Amino acid sequence: MVALDNQQQRQRPNGLAVFMGNVPSDLTAPAFKTQLSPFLEQLRIEDWTCDKPRGKAFGILTFLHRKDGQIFLNKHGEQPVPGAPLTSSKHGRMRAHLSLLGKPVYCRESDNGPDPMLLKVIEMNAEERNRPAEEAEETQEHKRVVFETWGVSCGHYDYPNETLTYTADVQWPGRGGVAKFARNMLIVSFPHSLGQIRLEMPYRAIQEVAISNRPTSLFLTLWEPPKIFLLPHASDEHGLVNQFRNLSANSNLPRPSQRERLNKIPHDSTNHGEVIGQSLIYCVTLSPAEFATKIERLRENEYLEFSLHNVPVASVSNSYMTEGLASFKSAVSKLSQTIPFDILYQFQALVQNGYLLPRTVENLLIRLEKSKYYEAPKKVEDEGESESRPLLARFPLSAPAVKKLFSQIPFPGPNTEAISFHPVTIWSMLEANETEIQHGLIKELISQRASQNLTMVHKVQVTPTRILFNGPEPEAKNRIIRKFPRHTGYFARIQFCDEDGQDLFYNPKVSLQQIYSRFKKILLDGFPIAGRLYKFLGFSHSSLRSHAVWFMASFVDDNKQLRSYATVIPELGDFKGIRSPARWYVPNTVDLPCAARIGQAFSETPIAIDLDELDTHIQLIPDVKSADGTRVFSDGVGTISRDLLEEIHARMPQKSSTATCLQIRWAGAKGMLSLDDTLEGITMCVRDSMTKFKSLDTQNLEICDVANKPIPLVLNRQMIKILEDMGVPNAWFFKGQNRELARLRKITALTQNTVTFLKRQKIAEQMGFAQFIRRLHNLGFDYKKDEFLCSVVEAVVLREVRLLKHKSRIPVEQGVTLFGVMDEFGYLGDEEVFVTFDKQGGTSYPDLHDRLVIVTRSPALHPGDIQIRRAIEPPRDHPLRSLSNCIVFSQNGSRDLPSQLSGGDLDGDIYNIIWDSMAVDGCRLEFKPADYPRVSPLDIGRDVQAEDMTNFFVDFMATDQLGLIANKHIILADVHDAGTVHDECKLLAEMHSTAVDYSKTGIPVDISKMASASLRSNTRYRPDFLAPAPPTHFVDKTEIRFEPPTAPSAEADEDDDTGPRHKFYKSEKILGQLYRAIDEKRIWKDDIHLAINRSGVYLWDELFIHIKSQCDEHFGVVDWERALDEAHSIRKAYEDAIWTATIDYSDHSSQAITELEVFTGTIFNKSGIQTRRQRDTSIRLKDEFDRTVKWVEALIRKREANSSSDVPDSIADDQPNGNYEESLNAGTDITALEMSIACFHAGLMRRGRGGPKKRNVDEFESFKVIAAHCALRELEMAIKQKEIAEGAAFTSGGYPGVRSGRA
Questions:
Q1: Does position 1131 have pLDDT exceeding 90, yes or no?
Q2: C-alpha torsion 803→804→809→814, nearest 10
Q3: What contacts 44, CB < 8 A, 6 or more positions away?
């Protein structure tokens, strides 16, 4: 090892480090580099970097090449002063030859030598700089603009006397502050009695900036409140002002080492927190010095929308937000007695989310109350002569009509007329919305959701500053929702997040204490919604990790019983005596069979089977354990008879009707059930390890997931690193990556490749998008001629390329991912597994009998988390052969295999299996699996109370270090030659295991272990494969573009450096090699985003002409025009549903996602890598889009939405054997073909959107895509039907499914 280290040392650049003393301590690291640059440029030295600790009077200058360092020292190194007495200070004995900001700086070679990792960083930067000129990208230069502030206020726009006026709700004396337009955000800093206030406003959150000259001010219209920080006092109370007065292009303000995040800006007399969510206009009064010049410079950056308008400021107002909110809340409390909750919820959301002023909405509510009328309740048959029942109040508006206002209300501002916010105008919009809704089209979509066991749930976001009301949104049912189907409105899902909807992340430099205190108070006290008080109820394991909980409001159920937390929770099971907050609510621990796991009740279970109805026989069977009783081989798995499984299949969607393994929740049990053909009758067997708490709620078997098909296996970084350490050759990884990369690069080259890719990715599967592209091609049309169609394909290909490069998601052809179960019959030996799965068409599979296979499970951090076992295939008549799509583990041996793979079990874990001989034979090493001691749950010494639960939830948010540990592990595995086998990596693997179990045990990771010098220093530098992806963004909501890199600026400081402040080096291990082998920008330019000439005839016009000509040729004139009115209504209903999805599935409660994201079922992320929440949301978004498409296609094609199978675009759908007479609409003779063509024509019409710009409203493109495909399919079927019935005349003179035009 020493010889190897010495050899590597000789290969590294022989750099030099210079220690620089007496550096101005206020200089930041970027400013230090800015000051040094001219001196290095004079010496023509390029390969260097520098570092300066904050607030310290020294810095380190490091050169890649020693000769460059010596040249610098020869010019600027300190020299002894001849004759200086030894009693002089050190600096007194030396003469400086370098001056920074007027101070002499003493330079000498550092005693410690250059950091080898830092030299690798400089070396990689040098390689990047020396790239060939043709590969260099154009850069854009950011022009930083800094103003001196004279005052800051937040308020709102109003229109007294029809004139736009700004009312300041809270004002701060911001004189002596700074407003700095940095690279990605506006930063406003001003002195305060408590310290220095810092406001951060990202440009994405600024809708508009009104520039006023009287006085010189900026009025900022925000989507969300700014991030607020309190910084410590500067040593000089007036230091900020003095520094501003001396501000030059390259000056930098000193930055305190600790910031405190606040939930409001402190004020002596006004509570800013009361209005922060609604007062979203911020006025920053600026110094008039050079105002016009700086504004012009600012506008050159082109990242904000500016308007010149001298906004009047109300000196005294009758509409302060505080008074308006108080009056509105009082009105809501009073009106909640009569106005239905779902309607009142939407009206309150308009105020709560900052769309309308409280006074305006209060006037609308009063008018609504006055508009109510009464109806007699419907008579119930066989009721007898009971006493008369009271009349029922009815209202002229519904909740969906109010919710549509969110897309219709513009931002107030200089370009918006007062009439847009007049209550009469808004009431007219509400009436028009209600008229559309009463058309009835949307009701079928609602029933479509209900048929899939979904329910509509209100969603609430709690941010550091405000509470936002969203939804209701479709949500899979859970046990509690299923128990109260008529009272789902009393339950709400609460998401705790940052202002932009993302998670709050741990930052050692920022204190979040005030934010977490706010979260705890809300969890303890609850909050009112539309007259109901919602309070904490519980959370599941997955929702805990996503920082979401369930709240509920008290209600009276159908049995006239009062329901609240106190009555709902006890019915789930026996929870007495639980003394660990984590175990109180979260499932999955097994050592205390009687422990409560309330979280199971909140797990999403889309399907519930009534076991009582089936007369199910339930057996409790013992667990299978090792000989010494310490290992449980059957941990989390039971069995099910074929008769019961077939009954369940009959009640499940068709695509799940072949599964032999089910992931379930039942009473207090959770886990897997595997088919046992030896069981007779309707039988289910449950084991002790599955039972988490006692419960009498045994009627329903809830299905979470099913093993109905094999899951494609893709590698990840952690698996790749361990496999590399086991000896798998690099060539195997490159073989898989190159194969996938070649496939991705060819996708847009040939239409057949595009079609195959879209089918594999299941993009817009319900509408048959891949088949549509194929149909266009067969007709001679190129989908690339349309920007939207092209963007759909490009977006999905780019997503896959970025996952391949930045996450090493390499598909493994000879591998699969499967649920794990146990061999119930003891057939397998202790080193054997049985791998069984449905073979995919078009793919050849080897015989796995008696072959070695790699078995693992994610996340894999310990080198022993990947094991090699022998796959065995039982005889054909053995009961194990009845199983499919699972890996069966042995019940023999001293330790079960699942527990050796990252501490897995059989309650629903999935396992990765690889049989590729190149990989298996390449594993020269196999490491002993980890065996961590079981961690006992936190015991607080008494029964758990509600406050313990809320504290645990917030503490988990604040201290969850799972991601941080995983990152450190992958860095150190790259730094150390031993990789994952190194002791530091093993320590991190153990800490990661503790962090994974934190949600179950309540025991957090001992973070002090990561504070060791080695762990801390080695992760200062990161391998290049962890560098952030180049950001991308949408242009016109459809086209994706890479953002040009920003050129380094002499003006830049830490406020401009908003990205990760990590230093990256070139990794020579396999992950680095794989990463550098993919040039995503080159692939995007050369293979994905091709330059297409879209001039000439519009693709959709050509297609429409083709369809009409085919109709003329085969049927004469088809009278589709008479269906246009209904077609426009269908388009409107569809686009309303799409708009709702753009809002409901966005992380941000106000800013919508794009139609492209809805259509592809993928939330877009600028970095190309989704967050965990975005991945989960994308799955739900895809399901919702599929439901929407199924519903709208039923309207277009005159079919029942629930009449077809759930197989999208099925073969039967395109066959000419349908009964087309049934496609006639009830009461009319409009055919499906006529309606399809009419809808296609309606989709081609551009909708003018004159007037003020509405929020989140754009021209949608996808309706014409769906309608065009419907028209093509209907046309094909009608022609085939005609050919079949050729020569047979109908009395109407037409053909099946087609109505001839009138003469």
A1: yes
A2: 140
A3: none
